């Protein structure tokens, strides 16, 4: 049987979240958490609206997924996020013992890979899914912001 | 004039928070954030009660301090925390650009120092303030927990 659910499908869901952040004037990053092909949590960056540096898309999705599951460990879950997680979010993902992380665009300067943030040994990480789309949205945001200032 | 406010004074406030966590059956870690010798935010570990790995003492204190200040940057603020921050909390502190971090006990395995979490260049970090008291509380928690199981 043809399987409609794949990494691209769920990354599109994360991109929808990123677009919601964009519309609110936030750096457009979105995330969803999936278990058994079902989205159980969503989040988008709200650091400006909440004046809170901890309000990254991933942090909200982690809290929402734990709430949904009734437990703090995200075993068998996959996070889809449009930008490589930062140290804070990767540190939270470490504690969550999440099974998989899939990101779209790399963050060479502030992402967890180049900063060597430790992930849980049970966690896999891969990138590049819809990278062009996620990067284009981020670029559009920063160009519009520059033009406004 | 004699100054009653020093690192020990504020770390005692953080230890009071850690004791609240202890009483709730949480790993006893507490934190306060101080500006101009005034405590503007408090937090204690609530990961079990909230079933949320992001509910560390520091994270709650950062959110509360930003809320109090009406801005997401914790310039001129000092965080007092009874245990060296983990990667997640240090990552949040990086984004907050907090001026100073003072911790009590080291966390050699999961603390930000040995895991090389990047702090903001404007941030200073020092440890060892009331280290014995903070460590004793943590040890008592794990001994009692072991005896219960």
Automatic annotation (TrEMBL), chains A, B:
Record: residues binding Zn(2+): 56, 86, 89
Cofactor(s) annotated in UniProt: Zn(2+)
E.C. number(s) listed in UniProt: 3.5.4.33
Pfam families noted in UniProt: dCMP_cyt_deam_1 (PF00383)
Protein name in UniProt: tRNA-specific adenosine deaminase
Self-association state and partner proteins as the record states: Homodimer.
Catalytic activity: adenosine(34) in tRNA + H2O + H(+) = inosine(34) in tRNA + NH4(+)
Entry annotated with the keyword Disulfide bond: no
Molecular function GO labels: tRNA-specific adenosine-34 deaminase activity
Cofactor note as given: Binds 1 zinc ion per subunit.
């Amino acid at each position: 049987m043809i399987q409609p659910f794949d990494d691209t499908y769920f990354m599109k869901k994360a991109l929808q979240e990123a677009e919601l952040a964009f519309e609110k004037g936030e750096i457009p990053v979105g995330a969803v958490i999936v278990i058994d092909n079902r989205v159980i949590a969503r989040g988008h960056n709200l650091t400006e609206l909440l004046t809170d540096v901890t309000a990254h898309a991933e942090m909200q999705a982690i809290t929402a997924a734990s709430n949904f599951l009734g437990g703090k460990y995200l075993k068998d879950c996959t996070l889809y996020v449009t930008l490589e997680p930062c140290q804070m979010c990767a540190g939270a993902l470490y504690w969550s013992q999440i099974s998989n992380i899939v990101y779209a665009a790399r963050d060479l300067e502030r992402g967890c890979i180049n900063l060597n943030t430790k992930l849980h040994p049970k966690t896999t990480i891969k990138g590049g899914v819809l990278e062009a789309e996620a990067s284009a949205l981020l670029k559009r945001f920063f160009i519009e912001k520059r033009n406004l200032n």
